[in-house]
Specification:
The structure is a single chain. By secondary structure, this protein is of the alpha+beta class. The chain has 2 domains: 159 residues, Beta-Lactamase; 224 residues, Hypothetical protein af1432. The chain is built from 17 helices and 5 strands. Strands 2-1-5-4-3 form a 5-stranded antiparallel β-sheet. Strand 1 and strand 2 form a beta hairpin. Helix 1 runs antiparallel to helix 2 and helix 1 runs parallel beside helix 6. The longest helix has 59 residues. The radius of gyration is 35 Å and the shape is elongated.
Length: 395
Amino acid sequence: MNAELKKTLYNISALADLGHAITSEQDFHKQIQSVLYVVTGTFLCGKGAIFYSEDRESRLTVLSQKGFDSVVVSGIDLDALKSAQKNLPYFINNDAVLTRAGAAVAVPLWVRDGFVGAVILGEKFTSAPYTEDDFELLKAIGSQLAVALSNHELFLRLNDQLEENRRLYDEMRRIYHDTLQAFAAAIDAKDVYTKNHSHRVAKYSAAIARELGWSDHDTEGIYVAGYLHDIGKIVISNEILHKTSPFTPEEIEQVRKHSLHSYKIISNIRFPWKDVDNIIRHHHEKLDGSGYPDSLGRDDISEGVKILSLADAFDAMTSKRAYREKMDLRTALYEMKSCLDTHFDNKIMLAFCRVLEKEIRGELPDPDILPHIDKDFDLSVISGLLEGLIKELSE
């Protein structure tokens, strides 16, 4: 194999290595340094530098350099590079500083009409001149490197935009959650007996959704629905909300309208989560069709509604109200079990029992359900009860 063929094969290999090096955005500057060593090795020269034009107008930044003095590198004539014919290497003959430093060839890097940088190479170790074949290879390397630098710039811009979008999204979520807390505070101000009810229902609903394998996005949606499900109670009179004696039929009708009031308020908000308004509207529907406001049957009730319905009922049972004391956990679970397949869905009940079981085992720092219910409960009794329920519901 003659020397020219060997050189050609080496050049092809160098280009392949160069292409591999510049496709990775990880540790870009280290990759560029590797590129420079490939290029200088290809042409058997001890000096080289790769520059990047950050603003494409007035300034060059050294990405990597080998063998040149830093003062020499910083003194590159940008106008001379930009005035050279696009993508074509040229000999450095009119720059005394660079020629004294051993610079021999410059390759301006262009992408379409944009100047993105340059490559400077020194004299060869062999003192042999750069040939036309060398210039052709330099042109190919320059074109590939120019695209790499342009892509890196695009990557940085997109990454900056992504970070800004992430910041805006986080800010939006913060505003949403602040708004939710304000709504919940408005509900709490109406009825001291349901203080923090919406917050707990939101947490219970999210815990069930996670147990069912919902995505983080959809879980956040059911959390929001839980927070806002009772917002319609702000239009119901305190006299009814605080009543300790049995409700009249008219009063029952007024209370039942709260889900429609909630829906009307929420449906005017454009949420980033699907179906929040309908989950809120139907959270008092029952599988047997006896719920309200639309008397939906089991096939028309979404999983989100079933989750919120169970979480809402559970917290209502285990919280003190104006007309009754709260239930202990054992009584509440048995009550819910008795309503399976008429009010509550077996699959949702099973997921909730598993959440409670995981909390007892210390596997869930959130949602902190048990401390709200009983301060002094027998873990062994509750664990046994849950184990039995889970086994029964799993069959």
